[in-house]
Prior knowledge:
The chain has 309 residues and is of the alpha/beta class. The chain has 2 domains: 16-136 and 294-306, Rossmann fold (3-Layer(aba) Sandwich); 137-290, 3-Layer(aba) Sandwich (Rossmann fold). The chain is built from 13 helices and 9 strands. Helix 3 packs across helix 4. The longest helix is centred in the C-terminal third of the chain and has 20 residues, at 287-306. It is globular, with a radius of gyration of 19 Å.
Amino acid sequence: MNLKRKDLLDIESLSKEEIELILETARPFKKLFTQSIKRVPTLRGKTVALLFYEPSTRTRISFEVAAKRLSADTVDLAVGNSSVQKGESLIDTGRTLEAMKVDFVVIRHPENGAAKLLSDKLKVHIVNAGDGTHEHPTQGLLDLFTLKEKRKDLKGMRVVILGDIAHSRVARSNAWGLIKMGAKVTLCGPPALMPAELGKMFGKAVHIEHDLAKAVRSADAINVLRIQKERMMDGLIPSFPVYTEQYGLTPKILKLAKKDCLVLHPGPMNRGIEIASEVADGPRSVILEQVTNGIAVRMAVLYLLAGSK
């Protein structure tokens, strides 16, 4: 079975069955590369172009490793040194890559809808690696995969997404995925980082809470978002110490959750601000497992899209 779509642009448009297909496909890939077989010939002869308009280390490298584990070639377009800096448009860049006969374009872009724009104009497979504050679908999928490995069934699971919800594409992808899988989602953060339209977007499918202690009670998992330092400069948070006091995930706060509560973070972490080192490195943390799982999930996405029509 393959995905009946050319591209992966978001989780909002995925069905539960499509999500389950990706997660189930990722399982054998993870087993392969974490044991003895580091590379399979599945996408030999295919080329994956990495088109990143924003700085990225984890996601870009994860996609590159995933492609190479499938025996695909990769092209890493250094946007800062390319014709993009000379005024070449996004569509022109995409068409140039298509003319070079690449098979996939993995794009990260600061503007919402950039991946969809390429999807509408190009015949190659487009994978959204994060567009503005819209979505980051493979991050959402790898987080679902990580939770499912630990808990099997996500239905009824209580998951808290904590931090700068307003500006987080990770929060949106996670919320959509968790809702579709039947989990109970709580969005928690400062009022200034939790705009009203989020409630309208998800409706009654999510609970919005500004009190961290209340949010984490009986939580099965807490996904901590990276606080972006420019938010303090924008005046949306008074200071990092104040933010940490009110919304930092500390050992004291974690004790309010279930004893087996899982802790996730998309990285990179601001240790001592949104998450304490004791929590990040503690027994409930699955943060490093997320990194490993990201490769497996991205392998699954590339493999399934390659077989789609």
